[in-house]
Design a protein that fits this description.
23% helix
Length: 349
């Protein structure tokens, strides 16, 4: 697709990775992981013919890039018209409006019915809204461990520690077991029904390729099971911060109603890992269901700090903005931390 001034908008070719890396280094940051290593970039974006990355070249110079992560990148049988947007950088000094042209190039290339974006800069949210996206800030909830005497990663106010931290397990009829799954165990069960509760669409193959075979991060997948049936999958990423461990609940697959059954299992997980807390960023998961499962809204406790940045570690709260557009799909949208590129390494571990 060509425009004036020999501007060429197209998917980034494999041979142009070095130009891409230099552009990120010169225009954004020399410490960005894409600058000094291609492992995660290839894993997340490399297709058979090109990268899932829209590029803008002007007379041979790269002047803009806009990342794309199709759900089908991790499972070729998933719908190809469901995508997440990723890193977006454009040199508007060279061509005014090149950033918007990159986005239009994505629309033409993928013709998406669902487009999602997480970690959107607050200044850019109005642009998404102008393009017809639903926008907002993800909910951030946390389940603090009752088995920890001192919090080193989180900052928990003394008054809250004194009055609330020693939860009792929620009284529930124990109807489900909580079983850790590897890819071989996952393949033995018929789990198709659990993927019908949300947009975007995922699958067992997606879970295996996105999480269980991640090249750097170590994810653990737990199945909520009733007898011999898998009713839900939970994706957890343990994070070690010096001598402490926290658990990040980065994806959930299953019905909203079953999420409330997780409380006792998650408390057991906190005890097993000797973790300070489990936190979850979400959109579309009902607030009452989160509360029923024992999670508290981070924003409801003054001075409570549940960090989000760990590479490097910053002891501060972080709001994660979302934007999505969904056309012709009636299944509700749910978003979690590991959708898009929010749960991506910022450095080699």
């Amino acid at each position: 697709m060509k425009a004036k001034n020999k501007l060429i908008i197209s998917l980034l070719k494999h041979r142009d990775y070095n130009k891409f890396s230099k552009f990120i280094k010169d225009q954004w940051s020399h410490t960005h992981i894409f600058v000094y290593d291609s492992t995660i970039f290839d894993w997340q974006h490399k297709g058979s013919a090109s990268y899932h990355y829209m590029s803008a070249f002007l007379e041979g110079d790269l002047i803009g890039v806009h990342g794309v992560i199709p759900l089908s990148h991790f499972d070729s049988h998933l719908p190809k018209d469901q995508i997440f947007l990723a890193f977006w950088l454009a040199n508007e000094d060279r061509v005014i409006g090149v950033g918007l042209q990159l986005y239009k190039g994505i629309l033409k290339e993928y013709n998406p019915r669902f487009i999602g974006a997480l970690g959107v800069n607050s200044k850019v949210l109005p642009v998404f809204k102008w393009q017809g996206f639903t926008t907002g800030t993800m909910n951030h909830h946390v389940l603090l461990s009752p088995y920890i005497n001192e919090f080193k990663v989180a900052i928990v106010p003394n008054y809250y520690l004194r009055d609330n931290i020693k939860y009792k397990k929620i009284t529930q009829t124990v109807s489900h077991s909580f079983v850790r799954f590897d890819k071989f165990k996952l393949k033995r069960y018929d789990t198709r029904l659990i993927y019908t509760h949300q947009t975007p669409t995922k699958s067992d193959v997606y879970v295996i390729n996105r999480y269980l075979e991640h090249p750097i991060y170590q994810y653990v997948v737990y199945a909520l099971m009733k007898e011999d049936t898998v009713d839900a999958l939970c994706v957890i990423r343990p994070v070690k911060v010096k001598n402490s461990i926290i658990l990040r609940f980065v994806d959930y697959i299953g019905s909203n109603d079953l999420f409330s059954k997780l409380n006792n299992h998650l408390l057991d997980l906190l005890k097993e890992y000797k973790a300070e807390y489990i936190d979850i960023y979400s959109y579309g998961l009902p607030i009452d269901v989160l509360h029923e499962s024992g999670f508290i809204n981070r924003n409801s406790i003054p001075n409570l700090i549940i960090p989000d940045y760990f590479e490097p570690f910053e002891k501060k709260n972080v709001e994660v903005n979302y934007a999505y557009r969904c056309l012709g799909v009636n299944i509700p949208v749910r978003l979690f931390k590991a959708d898009g590129d929010q749960d991506r390494p910022s450095r080699l571990l």
